[in-house]
């Protein structure tokens, strides 16, 4: 692989950075809201699973 000098490297970095498509403010807000909703749904789901398994384990321990 050919080595590039620092000025060529930074020029290439600048060129590649200009190709980045940044999300709009609306897209960022929408994504953040979606992530928050999914976090709440998944936490309630795992709370329910944990409670169910805890009750099963407590019931099994009372049998033994």
Automatic annotation (TrEMBL):
<dbReference type="GO" id="GO:0065002">
    <property type="term" value="P:intracellular protein transmembrane transport"/>
</dbReference>
<dbReference type="GO" id="GO:0006605">
    <property type="term" value="P:protein targeting"/>
</dbReference>
<keyword id="KW-0653">Protein transport</keyword>
<keyword id="KW-1133">Transmembrane helix</keyword>
<dbReference type="GO" id="GO:0009306">
    <property type="term" value="P:protein secretion"/>
</dbReference>
<dbReference type="InterPro" id="IPR005807">
    <property type="entry name" value="SecE_bac"/>
</dbReference>
<dbReference type="Pfam" id="PF00584">
    <property type="entry name" value="SecE"/>
</dbReference>
<comment type="similarity">
    <text>Belongs to the SecE/SEC61-gamma family.</text>
</comment>
<dbReference type="GO" id="GO:0043952">
    <property type="term" value="P:protein transport by the Sec complex"/>
</dbReference>
<keyword id="KW-0811">Translocation</keyword>
<comment type="function">
    <text>Essential subunit of the Sec protein translocation channel SecYEG. Clamps together the 2 halves of SecY. May contact the channel plug during translocation.</text>
</comment>
<protein>
    <recommendedName>
        <fullName>Protein translocase subunit SecE</fullName>
    </recommendedName>
</protein>
<keyword id="KW-0813">Transport</keyword>
<dbReference type="InterPro" id="IPR001901">
    <property type="entry name" value="Translocase_SecE/Sec61-g"/>
</dbReference>
<keyword id="KW-1003">Cell membrane</keyword>
<keyword id="KW-0472">Membrane</keyword>
<comment type="subunit">
    <text>Component of the Sec protein translocase complex. Heterotrimer consisting of SecY, SecE and SecG subunits. The heterotrimers can form oligomers, although 1 heterotrimer is thought to be able to translocate proteins. Interacts with the ribosome. Interacts with SecDF, and other proteins may be involved. Interacts with SecA.</text>
</comment>
<keyword id="KW-0812">Transmembrane</keyword>
<feature type="transmembrane region" description="Helical">
    <location>
        <begin position="32"/>
        <end position="61"/>
    </location>
</feature>
<dbReference type="GO" id="GO:0008320">
    <property type="term" value="F:protein transmembrane transporter activity"/>
</dbReference>
<dbReference type="GO" id="GO:0005886">
    <property type="term" value="C:plasma membrane"/>
</dbReference>
<dbReference type="InterPro" id="IPR038379">
    <property type="entry name" value="SecE_sf"/>
</dbReference>
